[in-house]
Every structure is written in structure tokens, then in C-alpha cells.
Specification:
This protein has about 575 residues and is α/β, with parallel strands linked by helices. The chain is built from 23 helices and 14 strands. α12 runs parallel beside α14 and α18 crosses α23. The termini are far apart. The N terminus is likely disordered.
Amino acid sequence: MRRLKKKLLPVLLLIFNLFNLDAFAQQDNYIQILSHQNHWVDSVYKTLNRRQKVAQLFFVRAHTNRGLAYEDSVAKVIKSQQVGGLVFFQGGPVRQADLINRYQKISNVPLLIAMDGEWGVGMRLDSTISYPYQMTLGAIQDNSLIYKMGQQVAYDFKRLGMQMNFGPDMDVNNNPNNPVINYRSFGDNKYNVAKKGIAYFKGMQNAGLLTTAKHFPGHGDTNVDSHLDLPLLPFSVERLDSLEEYPFREAVKAGIAGVMIAHMSIPALDSTKNQPSTLSKKIVTRVLKNELGFKGLIVSDAMEMKAVTKYYPDGEAELKAFLAGNDIIELSGDSKKAIQKIRRAVRRGDIPDEQFEAKVKKVLAAKYWSGLNNLHEVSTEHLFADLNRPAARELVQQLSDAAVTLLKGNAQTLELNPIQKTAIISIGVDKETVFQTELAKWYNNSTLFTINKSTPVAELNRMLETLKDYGQVYVGIHDTRARPQSKLDYSNGVKEFITALAEHNNTVISVFANPYTIAGLPGIEKSGALIACYQMSDELQRAAVKVITRQLKPTGKLSVSVNVYFPNGAGL
């Protein structure tokens, strides 16, 4: 009996946690607790000297895929500098849980643990669930599904001992060639971006996770990656106010806990040459805090990025970010030097004492709200099973089903004839796909073909001849890249092959790629039916098969404008 209880306990705890995902919704949110005196925050604050108070504002990088020497170096920084938090990147869940336990033990004040988890912990960790990209979610018409996703993401974060997600991305991606946001955005419609972002962060916050809308005032219309250089946002104040800032304004009204500042040059808001918005008091304090009325945590984008370090090296950027109004300085290139510079600035009186105190207490209050005043060790027992629970996997499929968008076609042009000789082709891959194997179950008289990204033209021409013997053709266009961009990395010959296939009315094409790629495939609109599936995942391939075989009525609407044939909102 005792042994049975021991086996059942983890299962019961999981069920309890899943049924209590909304527990925090009944409590004050993070913004609300900032207006109340907090004895834990006050008592911790009083124990810290000036250097330790400054260090609470710094969050440093952590990995579990770089070996023991790297892990030890992070431990050394935690122990010597007593920083406020960590940002975890690539690695594995069990290794990360173990490392969080190790790091928490050597920190005098509990560490606030964060991660970029725009599509869940699978964005960074192996052996975990990835939810659909935000551009895929942008096609969904039922925002309650996105709220549920937020709840599940919060569960995963908390199960791993993390308290803060640097998400959602609330940029309006109105530049198809954006190299850094793109599929990470909910789309190019500001209203849809705001609604989806709010649904996502409310799901997370109501389940007890701190969230961060990014990248203020809006990184969606840039053609430079701020990891590599300083992007320019050359628009007027009126345009920025009405478009880029709109989702952030709505998020602030809805109670978002945090906002991350982008590294961009924005002359209309601050004309200082080569100054990233992160370092601008006019943008951080005047616009975000004063004009939008934001009272929560202001987080800098990574201070190690070239957009910052190119012009402000040696801790100067961190000092400027601090004085501009940021509360959390993320991923400093040299946190020790930067802490010293800020400590001297505080001692000189470059910032009023009450403002400095408010910054530090905001970080401490975030720790309190997250439950770090009562820190528990992360259990690794059943961790893999908990992070890969059936309910979460089912939700990924539900989200995928809800996103699939029929751009052209109807029941007759989709299902065609189940007994006719049928070709099922996957393009951009080297082996058979889920799309092919699932669809073949419905077409007994079918043959599967694969075309890779650079199949020779002569071979493609022979394939076209072969396909003349087939009465109907189903085509999957696949982008296997980890970062699906706006243009497919196919050879011109393969793209022309797709054009030739589309000229036949008995061809049904499903695009498992960034929807912008459709614009780079001229003539694809001539196909008998066209389905936008947004990304390469098993769930979306299954969803497309469900649509083709009339098991699922497609309800998705295009989240971006592709071309004149397929504008934002297209979907039958």
C-alpha cells in the first residue's frame, strides 16, 4: 500500500497542478502588488549593500550544453557578484533542473530564472514540447486556445524552476524581409497581434509566470538583425504611436508584468546618433513609463548584442540602460565592470535614491510574487513525463488544426478521387514525410515521391513526364530549416517544377513553410487547391491531411499579407 501511494503521488501532484493552472488569476497580479508595502521585499532590501543592490538588476547567461567548465564559470559569477537572475539558453531539462538547484544554493537572495520561450521551453531545451510559432498562432480564430497554451507553457516553466518568460513577441511584422522577427510575430495586423499577445500572456500570468512583451517600441519593420548591427526605424512619431506601439499599449492596459526594450535607432523619438532605444531615457522613461503608463519590469534586450556593443563598449551601455529607466540589465558582456560603473553613478547621485530603491524593489517583488520567498528544490523525478504530458501534446494538435488555412479550393478540389491513381509528393526533403504517410492511408492507389531542395532539372523533367500517368497529385512544400525565412532555399529548377505542378487543376498543394514563401512561388495560385500550413511540424502535416480528407473544416485565416492574391485575413 505504501509503495502504491509513492507511485501515485507524482501523478496526483501533476493532476493538482494542471487543475490549478489558473490559481494565480484569483490573486493580485504582479503590477498590483507593486502598490503595496511588502515586508519580505523590505527586509531583503535592508540586508544588501549598494553593490549587491545593483547586482540584483543583472541577469547573466546560463547553458547546460557547454560543459562543466562553463557551468562552473557561471557559478563563480553568481557567488562573487550575487546577481539577481539567470537567463537559460540551450540544453536539456534534467540537466537544467539540476543546475538551477546548484545555482540557487550558492545565491544569498533567490535567483529569478528566465528563458526566451516564445513557443515554450522547446525553443531552448531538447526532449520537451514546442508549441506552434507565433505567426502560426496568428491564423487561429479562437484565442481561448492561445490562453490555454499560455497556461501549459507556465506549467513547464514552473516545473523546471523558472519564474519568467521573455515572451510573448508583440512586434507587428509588416516587413516580409525582416531577418530577426518574422515568424516570431503573430502577424502584420496590429489588432490581431495585440489580442493574441494578451491571450498568451494572460494564460501564463494567471498560472503564476512573469511575462515580458517584446521588443518595444516595435521591431517588426526592420531589415537588420540587431544581433549583428543597429537597425534603423525611420518612421514618424504618428506612425510609431498608431502602429508599432499599439500592441504594447494594449498589453500595458491588460496588466503585462514586463516589457523588453529593443535595440534600435529611432530618430523620431531620440535623434542621438547611434544610440539604441534601450539606452534612451526619452524612449524608456518618457514614452514607455510616462506616456504609456507602464509600471512593471522594464527589461533590456541582450546587452551583448552588436547593436549595443558596437557603439558602447566596456560597461558604458549598461550604465546608460540603467539611467534610461531599465530595471533588468540582461546578458551584460562584463557584469562585474558594469556593476561597478552603476554603483559609482548611484553614489554620485546620478539617479535619485528613491528611483534606485524602486528599481531594486521591483526585482525583489517579482521574486516574491513568483514564490521565491519560499524556495523549493526542483524535483527531477518524473520530469520528462511531466514535460511531455498527453494534455500538452493534444493542445499542440488542437492549435495546429485551428491554424490551417485554406487559401483556394473546396471539398471537391481537395479530396479528389480516393481510388484514382494518385501521386503524393514532398518537396524540400530527403525522406518520406508524415504528410505523405498519413495521406497515403486514404489513397490506396498512390505512389510517394520526394524531391530535395536541389534536385537536378533533368530529373525534375523526367518526374513531370512520369506524373502525366497520374490522375491527381498532392504536393507538400516543406521548409526544414530551424529558422523558416520568407524565401525558400530551393534551387530555381525546383521552384519552376512547383510552378509546372500548379498548372494542373488536379493538384492540391500544402505549404509547410513560412507563409511569405508563397509569394516566391509564381503560379502557385493556379493549383486546384492551396493550403497554408505555416511551418514544418508533424502536427500541421496531420492537420493538412485532415482538411484534405474532410475530417476537419479549416478555420484559419492568413496572419500576414503574402501578395495581391492572398492578403491578410484570407481563408475560405
